[in-house]
Every structure is written in structure tokens, then in C-alpha cells.
């Protein structure tokens, strides 16, 4: 084991891991994070903290991680390449490790045109694959990107990334994961899965390349609150593949029952992805619906979590 | 070519508000080819300015002049004999030309009439599209001749990101995903193995990030 | 036919409306004209294939320039008619004059 990460430990022990996420507030109130944290503590093995997701300004991911850490949760610090150059990113990596953060999720980040500051300049000094390599280099080789030695403590982070099995072109999606794995990625959380058939096909490609043995694949699921949310995500969220029969199934129940049905669907999806060879965990993204995570995890038969 | 867009009439009118006698200076290079600041556009803008002034009961004297290039001192020198007759120069060259005209006549007020946008190509008559950002270290041999720096909204080197759908960029449905183009190109050339290589972190010091750039060919210098 | 049309119209002959440039029309306004009307051949019957279609696009572009100048875009127009339609020409001349008269003179003094 390279790090003190809870999920690295559980994965090494062969356990099926469960992660979830927590979006920081659009303000400075730490209580918001603590409340969300309280809903997830003990329910999942680690909690992602998003980094200005959809390019909307929020409390810093690292600060929110620390708040969760102080509550005894193992946070997964998300870092996007959109807002910071290699100087800031390396510095933050050292800072995060110093604060006891054990996991990093390397992302390119949504383009700023989607957010509340579309007039911003983006950075993209490095991309997500290169960021993975940078973390690995700092941790394993003790070398900064500029070539100097890391003195006084290497950052011991468990390295993760995201991959969208539904993005185009589909045929290279597994190959692209291969590049991330070669760069040093140790776990992957996928984009929310609704099209199980396509995901299974992607996993087949992943297994053909042997990537599931070098990198833990955590399948992403997002519970749908309503048919409206499903339709919105299908049409407006890039790279989201929601089959029509799922939307029809939600439409088929009265509005006030759609949330319940959405949770039922999510639980079924977890049970099905769990059976796919190579899937070593699930990542439950209950967007502003953290109170339902415990229910979903329990219904999926994944409670209680291993010590 | 360098592509630009003329500023709105309203903005240009505001810039020339204090002046009654201006030199409207076009350029016959790229900005002519992209139909933003050549002889013809100089004529149109001059006419528009005169109409606008007349509407307010005023007047403006405009000398229309289009240089072969506004980025070469030999050509800029051509306006030397008469530039002082005008209160201001309104340049319709690209940003480089506007800068250089101002550099050559530091006492003169030089006003921009063009917003310079990108280095690109004409994909069909009347349509221009970005191709190069002048990063100073070309990697087109790795990417099938499609530049991820200029043509990917995130300039990522190991794409595509998760937002590529049906060959289109998540940022704008009218923009092709550069990485889809790269993969299609490599596949067509039987060179998909190129895609397998992780492209290393870029040295941006050769780009604008390293500071303003200069190129010198000693053998061509006169002194 | 001895048709009459308003005398305030000045005819500028061109070999094809494809020859009509934005600047040509803009110069008319600059010189104080209150309107510009392009009379092109029927669509699909241009001797040079697309002259009249190009002219239409240029008139549309001119309308944008007029808009920017705060001059009513209705002052620029393009009609399509054949040389055998004298009656229609007289009617268009009358219609255009009526439109311009209703708008009044442009604030541009030639």
C-alpha cells in the first residue's frame, strides 16, 4: 500500500468499495459541508469533493476536503486543469498532502463557458492525463515537473481520474483509459451510467486491454429525481447517455413518486454493474440529494461498510 | 492568414468623435483576404463615417489609403509625406499592423478599427475558421495534422475529453471536436498507434507565455 | 405602352445586378439619395447565373449597414422582374417612392 487512503486499503483487501460526492456551497459556510458530510459518514468509504463543477464558483475543493477530513471522512480531492497552471497545481498537491488528504481525482474540468464566469481565461497548462503523471512523479520519483527534487516529504496521494465510457469516439474510450493507467492512474470513477449495455461493452474493451487489473474501476451512478431531470441531463449534459425507456419508466409513475422510482432504478443499476467483471466499486453521485445515499447503498445490499 | 472582424460602427464613431480629419488606413494582406480591412472595406467604412457625420449635420474629411502591408516599414513609410495633415489614423490592419503603424509614428493617435481574432483559413467563401495559435512548437506530426492547441476548446493534448459527442465539441455544436478529427485522421492513415502515445507536458515558453517573441535571421540583416 | 413612373428616380444602368457593389449603393446614400432600389432579373433567370442572387445578399448586407447607421433599412430594396414587365417596373417605382416618401428624407445632406 502506497498511501493512507481508505479506498486503496479496501481495494487491496479485495472489497467492493462505495464512494459518493459532496458539492461545496456557493458561500463560505462550513456548516453546509458538515451537514452533507454527516449524511455520508460511515455510509460510504470515501467522498469526492468537486472542484468548481460546471465552472461555477464555489468554496474551494481543498478547503471542503479538510472540513470533511476533520469529521473523520476520507475525502477524494478533485482537481481540474482549467483554473491552475503547473506551479499552482504542484503547490496545492503538496499542501493537500500536508493536510492529510489521501486521494486525488485528476480532471480536465468543464469548459468555463458553461459556468457563471464565461468571460474567464482558462489555463489548461497541462491536461488530466498529464496531471496524473505529475502526481505520480511527485510521489514516486520525488521530482517536481521542473526536475528538482522534492525535499521534506513526498505527497502520498492515491491517484484517480474520471473516464466517460459514453463519450465519442466510443472505440478509443478504453484506449484512452489505457493512457491514463500508463500515466499512473490507480482508480477510475466513470461518468454516470444509464446505458448498461454500452457500459458492459466498454468494460469488455477495458478487460481486453487488461486495464481492470492495473486500475480499479468504480462505476458511476446518478439517481434521477424526476423524468424532467432525466430529460434535461440527456439533452444538456455533455456525454450523458440516458436510454428513452428509463425516461418512460419515470414518466409512467405519478410525479410525486418519480424520486422513489429513480432510487429504485439506481439500486438496480448498482446491482447490475456489480456483476460486471472488473467493476470494483460504485460511485454514487446524488446531486444535491446526499440524504438519499444511505438509502441507496443499503437497498443495494452494500451496508454496512467494512471497517 | 490573420483573421479579423471590423469593430461596430458605433464603437468606431466613438473613437473618432474628437476628429474632423482622419487617415483611414487599410492593408492589402490577410485583412483584405478575410474581407475586414482591405481597400473595399476602407471605402465602406469611410462612406459610413461620412454618412453618420452628415446625419448629425457635421462633416469629416477622410483620406482613404490602403498599404501593401502595414507590418513592413517600407510600406508604412508611404504615408510619411501626408500623415501630419490628419489628426488621427484609423487603422484597418490586423493588430500587428495597427501596432506597427503606431510604432512608426509615436506622436500620432492611431485608432483600431479591427478586432483581430485568429490565424486561420477560409473553409468556404465568406467563412473563416481558426487553425493555429502560434505556440512556437508544432506537434501536428503527432496529431494527424489537426492542432489540439488551436482547435480543442481546452487545448488538451491527450483528448478527447468527456464532452465530445457525435464529433462535436461540448462548448459549441458548430465546432468539430478536434480529438475526433485527430482520431479519424490517424485511423484513415493507419496510424492509430500514434494515439497510444501519451503526449508529454508542453513547453509553453516558446508560446506567448514566454513573453513577447522576436525572430532574427542574422544572414538577412543589413547591419 | 407609354407608362409613367415617378420622376424623382435616377436610373443607373448596370450590365447585371451582380455588378452592384455594397459601396456603390452606400455612396448613393452618402451623396444624399433617400433610397436605393435594385431591379434585377427574375430569380433563376440571370444571364450570368447568380448575379441577381448575389445582389440580393449585398442589399441585405447594405440593410445591416444602414441599421448600424440609424437609417431605415427599408430605404434599400431589391426587386426581381423581367424586361418584359414594364407595368411591374412602373408599379415598383411607384411603391418604392411611396415607401420613401412616407419615411421622409434621410438626415444625410449631400
Please tell me about this protein's structure.
The complex is a heterotrimer of chains A (307), B (223) and C (110). By secondary structure, chain A is α/β, with parallel strands linked by helices. Chain A has helices at 6-12, 30-40, 61-70, 86-98, 128-141, 173-183, 196-208, 211-214, 227-236, 244-251, 258-274, 293-299; strands spanning 17-22, 46-49, 75-80, 103-107, 158-163, 187-192, 216-221, 279-284. The mean pLDDT of chain A is 96. With 223 residues, chain B is an alpha/beta fold. Chain B folds into two domains: 2-118, Rossmann fold; 133-200, no CATH class. Chain B is built from nine helices and seven strands; from the N terminus they run βαβααβααβαβββααα. Chain B has helices spanning 9-16, 30-33, 39-55, 73-76, 80-83, 95-104, 148-151, 178-188, 193-196; strands spanning 2-6, 21-27, 61-67, 88-91, 109-112, 114-124, 127-132. In chain B, a hairpin with a 2-residue loop joins strand 6 and strand 7 (127-132). Chain C has 110 residues and is mainly α. In chain C, helix 2 links the parallel strand 1 and strand 2 (76-80). Chain C starts with 21 loop residues before the first helix and ends in a 7-residue tail after the last helix.
Which range does the strand content of chain C fall in? Answer: 5-15%
Based on secondary structure, the structural category of chain C is mainly alpha
Known CATH architecture of chain A: Alpha-Beta Barrel
User: What's the main sheet of chain C like?
Assistant: 2 strands, parallel
Model regions low in confidence, pLDDT < 50 over at least 5 residues of chain A: none
Number of strands of chain C: 2
At the fold tier of CATH, the topology name of chain A is TIM Barrel
Number of domains of chain C: 1
* Averaged pLDDT of chain A: 96
Biggest protein-protein contact in the assembly: A-B, 35 and 30 residues
Query: How many structurally independent domains of chain A?
Result: 1
Give the oligomeric state: heterotrimer
End-to-end CA span of chain C: 35 Å
- One letter per element, helices H and strands E, the order of chain A comes to HEHEHEHEHEHEHHEHHHEH
List the total number of helices of chain A.
12
Shape call of chain A = globular
Largest beta-sheet characterization of chain A: 8 strands, parallel, barrel
**Fraction of residues in helix of chain A:** 40-55%
Helices of chain C, by number, come to 3
Q: Indicate the radius of gyration of chain C in whole angstroms.
A: 14 Å
Amino acid at each position: 500500500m502506497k498511501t493512507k487512503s481508505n479506498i486503496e486499503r479496501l481495494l487491496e483487501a479485495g472489497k467492493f468499495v462505495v464512494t459518493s460526492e459532496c458539492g461545496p456551497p456557493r458561500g463560505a459556510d462550513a456548516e453546509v459541508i458538515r451537514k452533507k458530510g454527516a449524511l455520508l459518514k460511515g455510509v460510504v468509504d470515501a467522498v469526492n469533493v468537486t472542484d468548481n463543477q460546471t465552472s461555477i464558483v464555489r468554496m474551494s475543493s481543498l478547503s471542503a476536503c479538510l472540513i470533511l477530513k476533520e469529521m473523520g471522512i476520507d475525502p477524494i480531492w478533485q482537481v481540474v486543469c482549467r483554473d491552475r497552471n503547473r506551479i499552482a497545481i504542484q503547490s496545492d498537491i503538496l499542501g493537500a498532502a500536508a493536510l492529510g488528504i489521501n486521494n486525488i481525482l485528476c480532471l480536465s474540468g468543464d469548459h468555463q463557458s458553461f459556468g457563471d464566469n464565461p468571460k474567464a481565461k482558462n489555463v489548461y497548462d497541462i491536461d488530466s492525463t498529464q496531471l496524473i503523471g505529475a502526481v505520480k512523479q511527485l510521489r514516486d520519483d520525488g521530482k517536481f515537473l521542473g526536475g528538482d527534487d522534492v525535499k521534506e516529504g513526498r505527497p502520498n496521494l492515491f491517484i484517480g481520474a474520471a473516464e466517460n465510457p459514453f463519450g465519442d469516439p466510443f472505440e478509443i474510450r478504453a484506449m484512452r483509459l489505457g493512457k491514463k493507467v500508463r500515466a499512473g492512474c490507480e482508480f477510475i470513477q466513470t461518468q454516470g451510467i444509464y446505458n448498461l449495455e454500452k457500459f458492459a461493452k466498454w468494460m469488455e474493451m477495458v478487460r481486453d486491454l487488461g486495464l481492470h487489473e492495473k486500475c480499479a474501476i468504480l462505476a458511476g451512478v446518478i439517481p434521477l429525481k424526476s423524468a424532467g431531470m432525466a430529460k434535461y441531463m440527456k439533452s444538456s449534459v455533455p456525454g450523458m447517455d440516458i436510454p428513452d425507456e428509463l425516461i418512460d419508466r419515470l414518466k409512467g409513475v405519478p410525479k410525486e413518486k418519480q424520486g422513489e422510482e429513480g432510487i429504485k432504478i439506481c439500486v438496480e443499476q448498482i446491482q447490475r454493474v456489480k456483476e460486471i467483471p472488473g467493476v470494483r466499486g460504485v460511485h454514487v453521485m446524488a446531486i444535491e440529494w446526499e440524504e438519499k445515499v444511505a438509502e441507496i447503498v443499503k437497498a443495494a445490499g452494500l451496508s454496512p461498510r467494512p471497517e | 492568414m490573420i483573421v479579423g472582424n471590423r469593430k461596430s460602427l458605433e464603437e468606431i464613431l466613438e473613437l473618432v468623435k474628437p476628429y474632423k480629419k482622419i487617415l483611414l488606413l487599410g492593408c492589402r494582406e490577410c485583412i483584405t483576404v478575410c474581407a475586414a480591412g482591405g481597400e473595399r472595406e476602407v471605402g465602406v467604412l469611410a462612406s459610413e463615417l461620412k454618412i453618420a457625420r452628415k446625419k448629425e449635420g457635421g462633416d469629416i474629411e477622410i483620406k482613404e489609403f490602403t498599404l501593401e502591408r502595414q507590418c513592413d516599414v517600407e510600406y508604412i513609410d508611404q504615408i510619411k509625406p501626408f500623415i501630419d495633415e490628419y489628426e488621427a489614423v484609423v487603422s484597418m490592419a490586423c493588430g500587428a499592423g495597427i501596432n506597427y503603424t503606431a510604432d512608426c509614428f509615436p506622436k500620432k493617435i492611431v485608432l483600431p478599427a479591427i478586432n483581430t481574432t485568429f490565424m486561420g483559413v477560409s473553409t468556404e467563401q465568406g467563412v473563416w475558421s481558426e487553425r493555429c495559435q502560434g505556440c512556437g512548437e508544432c506537434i501536428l506530426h503527432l496529431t494527424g495534422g489537426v492542432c489540439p492547441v488551436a482547435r480543442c476548446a481546452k487545448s488538451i493534448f491527450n483528448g478527447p475529453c468527456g464532452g465530445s459527442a457525435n464529433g462535436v465539441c461540448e462548448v459549441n455544436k458548430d465546432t468539430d471536436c478536434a480529438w475526433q478529427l485527430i482520431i479519424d485522421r490517424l485511423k484513415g492513415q493507419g496510424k492509430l498507434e500514434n494515439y497510444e502515445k501519451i503526449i508529454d507536458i508542453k513547453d509553453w515558453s516558446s508560446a506567448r507565455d514566454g513573453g513577447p517573441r522576436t525572430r532574427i535571421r542574422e544572414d538577412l540583416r543589413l547591419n | 405602352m407609354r407608362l409613367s413612373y415617378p420622376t424623382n428616380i435616377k436610373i443607373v444602368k448596370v450590365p447585371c445586378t451582380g455588378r452592384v457593389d455594397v459601396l456603390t449603393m452606400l455612396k448613393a446614400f452618402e451623396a444624399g439619395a433617400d433610397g436605393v432600389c435594385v431591379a434585377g432579373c427574375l430569380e433563376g433567370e440571370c444571364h450570368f447565373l447568380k448575379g441577381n442572387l448575389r445582389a440580393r445578399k449585398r442589399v441585405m448586407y447594405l440593410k445591416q449597414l444602414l441599421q448600424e447607421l440609424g437609417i431605415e433599412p427599408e430605404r434599400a430594396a431589391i426587386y426581381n422582374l423581367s424586361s418584359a414587365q414594364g407595368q411591374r417596373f412602373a408599379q415598383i417605382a411607384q411603391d418604392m417612392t411611396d415607401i420613401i416618401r412616407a419615411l421622409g428624407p434621410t438626415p444625410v445632406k449631400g
